[in-house]
Amino acid sequence: MTDDKTLGVYDEKAGDYARLMDHDTIAPTALNKFLSALPERGTVLDLGCGPGSWARYMVKAGFRVDAIDASAGMVEKASAIEGLNVWQADFSDIQDVAKYDGIWANFSLLHARRAEMPAHLARLKTALRSDGRLHLGLKEGTGEARDSLGRFYTYYTVAEIRDLLARIGLSVSDLRTGADKGLDGTVAAWFTLTAHG
């Protein structure tokens, strides 16, 4: 994510976002299912970790966790988590090869431009081990827009993401859909899925 306006919102509202994550009832179910498919004490990347809510959970569950976020405010929050390896980075900074058993990209890649998504997904596949799993959470819809806080979003259909993943040799499972109120106070449709070889 390189959109300065979006980063500014997250820097300013890191505390508010952390409190919102504390009341998230959707991600824990998806995260538990995701982690259950990974090897014990496996290596996970939390891509766009925010304040580290889910990274903390993964560390406590015994996983070795790297966490990145492009927002300095979010990285500062996540850095307080004991046992978490966290640093400030953009999606395009991922250059690892076969390092991760799992990559948790929970509503982070939706801030990337549509034209950039194929390259981001290809880098993530390269960073995964051959039997690795990629969790994606995205907002459902079409087009690109900013919310009332000024954050940039790209909206996707499930069919569009399935196609992008198929092009790099990944299949989809564990598809879930819903709608929830976000940081801007509006209810938006979303979907999550797991991609694997």
Automatic annotation (TrEMBL):
Family annotation (Gene3D superfamilies): Vaccinia Virus protein VP39
Q: Does the UniProt entry include the keyword Transferase?
A: yes
Key words of the record: Methyltransferase, Transferase
GO MF terms, alphabetically ordered:
methyltransferase activity
The GO annotation for biological process reads: methylation
Keyword check for NAD: no
Identify the residues that the record assigns to the Methyltransferase domain, covering every copy. Answer: 44-132
Domain of life the protein comes from: Bacteria
| Name of the protein this chain belongs to | Methyltransferase domain-containing protein
Q: What is the lineage of its organism?
A: Bacteria, Pseudomonadati, Pseudomonadota, Alphaproteobacteria, Rhodobacterales
